[in-house]
């Protein structure tokens, strides 16, 4: 796989020869405004707002008052506003255009979800409020859990994990707790297909397991012969993504589950790609024991949401007793005739319930903003709408696959699921690399697809349009990608190696940037010294 080792100018004034912004006096081009660092725009000797010195008041800082300038740039309110608005315009976003990142599922987040999440009763809820004042929030969590269990065919769910990898950790810790409770402390080997998400082996190791890699067959799925050869009485389980990272459904999934259970292990399914099968396939029916669900991928909550995300983890009957604290407990038979909910924070509150939580994963109960957004998405779609989500995600990916496989090379034969995977064979002999191709997409106004991943495919280009893209948007994307592929084959190598030409900043030496990042601004006077 090619790496970019050729550093290129990144500042505007240095890029006249490559079509940069140095051809204007201001450094701007049309409505695209040049914008330096805020420290370069505002002087540290100035202040945007002046306050008179306080009169008649004594300091309460006990000698800890600041004695030197604070060193922050001073700008007026309009200057400050313009700075951040100009920076925001340099970001690519799903609200700006198609975001083809494979494996990441960058789908549109409906504004209805945002409106509900901002309702005062949800937006203002605090984790330290008395349980009696947050019964509505608890009910939202209970209804969300109900939907997740129905859609997955599983009996229990832990809502507290904050993200996908955190959900993986939850599921693998539940597996370890179950093995330990059964006296199976010698089972510490976890089988992980080589096409797995990178967090899978990392999570297994973090939970005290060793990782044994399973190769893929020629079709991009688990090599069943290799899997069978790895089975043994020390196998704790398998961590498998379905559909997998190559965008393919594991056709032998039931046999895999039976083999793992037959040797005494448990089946962890990475649920990152649940959006491809939601409403169509229930993981519980496939023999899954634990699976995290990325609410942002399947149910359209923002990535992170400006804070912690949410990665609820569903658990099988065998693992349910080991779900982490806190647990939402509901008293439906209280004397007042209404369901009263509370969070069980300690094992002492679970007496007589035959529950054995492996511990806590977070200080509080979950991310309320993510819960409300996800539930809004579920309820606004309904069961039939969620089926269509999966149908459209798969349809859109196959539409791209069909539109591009004539000019690009499909990594594996046959239909895909929610993402189309190409390799770099179509670029052979052109002098254009996967990286060059991705940079040229920036000049065309598109964020590049996921590159060089999955690692099992040379020069991989993984494209996931999601279900929220229209046919017109996909047609335009296919047209651009086809034109770039034909340009590469026509020998326009220089165009690709110079790209991106029209971006505010140009291509940089990525290897050096990763190994020698400049993380601190240095004033010019200090730099001269």
UniProtKB/TrEMBL annotation:
Protein name: glycine dehydrogenase (aminomethyl-transferring)
Sequence segments annotated as region (Disordered): 1-28
Reactions listed under catalytic activity: N(6)-[(R)-lipoyl]-L-lysyl-[glycine-cleavage complex H protein] + glycine + H(+) = N(6)-[(R)-S(8)-aminomethyldihydrolipoyl]-L-lysyl-[glycine-cleavage complex H protein] + CO2
Organism name: Maricaulis salignorans
A GO molecular-function annotation: pyridoxal phosphate binding
Sorted UniProt keywords: Oxidoreductase, Pyridoxal phosphate
Pfam families assigned: Aminotran_5 (PF00266), GcvP2_C (PF21478)
Keyword Oxidoreductase attached: yes
Stored SUPFAM superfamilies: PLP-dependent transferases (SSF53383)
Annotated function: The glycine cleavage system catalyzes the degradation of glycine. The P protein binds the alpha-amino group of glycine through its pyridoxal phosphate cofactor; CO(2) is released and the remaining methylamine moiety is then transferred to the lipoamide cofactor of the H protein.
GO CC terms, sorted: cytosol; glycine cleavage complex
Glycine dehydrogenase C-terminal domain boundaries: 392-489
Keyword set includes Oxidoreductase: yes
Source superkingdom: Bacteria
Domain Aminotransferase class V: 201-304
């Amino acid at each position: 796989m090619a790496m970019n080792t050729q550093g290129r100018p990144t500042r505007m004034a240095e890029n006249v020869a490559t079509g940069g912004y140095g051809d204007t006096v201001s450094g701007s081009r049309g409505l695209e405004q040049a914008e330096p660092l805020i420290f370069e725009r505002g002087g540290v000797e100035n202040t945007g707002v002046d306050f008179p010195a306080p009169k008649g008041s004594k300091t309460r800082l006990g000698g800890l008052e600041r004695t030197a300038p604070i060193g922050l740039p001073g700008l007026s309110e309009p200057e400050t506003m313009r700075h951040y608005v100009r920076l925001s315009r340099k970001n690519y976003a799903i609200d700006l255009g198609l975001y083809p990142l494979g494996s990441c599922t960058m789908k549109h987040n409906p504004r209805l979800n945002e409106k509900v999440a901002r309702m005062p009763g949800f937006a203002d809820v605090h984790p330290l409020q008395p349980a009696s004042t947050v019964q509505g929030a608890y009910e939202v969590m209970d209804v969300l859990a109900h939907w997740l269990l129905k859609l997955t065919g599983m009996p229990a769910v832990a809502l507290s994990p904050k993200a996908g990898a955190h959900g993986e950790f939850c599921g693998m810790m539940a597996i370890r707790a179950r093995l330990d409770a059964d006296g199976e402390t010698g089972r510490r080997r976890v089988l992980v297909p080589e096409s797995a998400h990178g967090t899978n082996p990392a999570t297994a190791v973090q939970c005290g397991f060793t990782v044994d890699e399973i190769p893929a067959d020629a079709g991009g799925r688990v090599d069943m012969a290799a899997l069978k050869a790895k089975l043994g009485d020390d196998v704790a389980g398998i961590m498998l993504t379905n559909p997998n990272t190559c965008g393919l459904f594991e056709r032998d999934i039931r046999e895999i589950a039976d083999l793992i259970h037959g040797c005494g292990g448990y089946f962890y399914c990475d649920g990152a790609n649940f959006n491809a099968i939601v409403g169509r396939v229930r993981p519980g029916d496939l023999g899954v024991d634990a699976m995290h669900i990325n609410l942002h991928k399947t149910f359209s909550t923002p990535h992170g949401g400006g804070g912690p995300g949410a990665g609820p983890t569903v658990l099988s009957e065998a693992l349910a007793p080991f779900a982490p604290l806190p647990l939402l407990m509901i008293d439906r038979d209280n004397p007042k005739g209404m369901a009263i909910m509370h969070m069980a924070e300690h094992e002492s509150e679970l007496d007589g319930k035959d529950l054995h939580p492996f511990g806590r994963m977070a200080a509080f109960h979950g991310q309320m903003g993510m819960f409300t957004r996800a539930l809004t998405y579920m309820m606004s779609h309904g069961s039939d709408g969620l089926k269509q989500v999966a149908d459209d995600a798969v349809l859109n990916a196959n539409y791209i696959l069909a539109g591009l496989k004539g000019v690009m090379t499909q990594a594996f034969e046959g239909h895909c699921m929610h993402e189309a995977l190409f390799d770099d064979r179509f670029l052979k002999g052109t002098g254009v690399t996967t990286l060059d191709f991705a940079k040229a997409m920036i000049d065309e106004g598109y964020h590049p697809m996921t590159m060089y991943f999955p690692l099992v495919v040379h020069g991989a280009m993984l494209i996931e349009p999601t279900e929220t893209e229209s046919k017109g948007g996909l047609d335009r994307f296919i047209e651009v990608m086809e034109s770039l592929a034909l340009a590469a084959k026509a020998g326009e190598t220089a165009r690709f190696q110079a790209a991106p030409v029209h971006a505010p900043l140009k291509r940089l030496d990525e290897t050096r940037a990763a190994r020698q990042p400049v993380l601190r601004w240095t004033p010019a006077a200090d730099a001269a010294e």
